[in-house]
Design brief:
With 107 residues, the chain is an all-alpha fold. The chain has 6 helices and no strands. The longest helix is centred in the C-terminal third of the chain and has 20 residues. The radius of gyration is 14 Å and the shape is globular.
Length: 107
């Protein structure tokens, strides 16, 4: 979950929304959302579901974005480092970036 907040922040920026908008929509305080965005706290399952609903995707997409190299066995880390940038960009573009004029350009 160490990267999840960064993805949420990027997506909010792309959509022209604020952390306040997200907090209001999911029924959390701005402080709670800020801590998630800074990767200082891990969102609970129900919060992930609410955030997924906010971005109109399944929670599994959000969980896929939360995979971190440190969560994987040693023998798979090299493959992860090679493949992950492509997978990450594809997931963001396909599931979360509904506006084709605002493609994710830096990951």
């Amino acid at each position: 979950f160490d990267v999840l907040g960064s993805h949420f922040k990027l997506l909010l920026e792309q959509k022209g929304l604020s952390q306040k908008d997200l907090a209001k929509s999911i029924g959390k305080s701005e402080t709670s959302v800020s801590l998630i965005m800074k990767n200082r706290t891990q969102p609970r399952r129900e919060t992930i579901k609410a955030i997924a609903d906010f971005f109109a995707v399944k929670p599994e997409v959000i969980l896929l974005l939360s995979i971190d190299k440190d969560d994987l066995p040693e023998n798979t880390k090299e493959r992860y480092e090679f493949l992950w940038p492509y997978v990450e960009k594809s997931v963001l573009d396909l599931f979360l970036n509904k506006d084709d004029s605002k493609k994710v350009s830096e990951l």
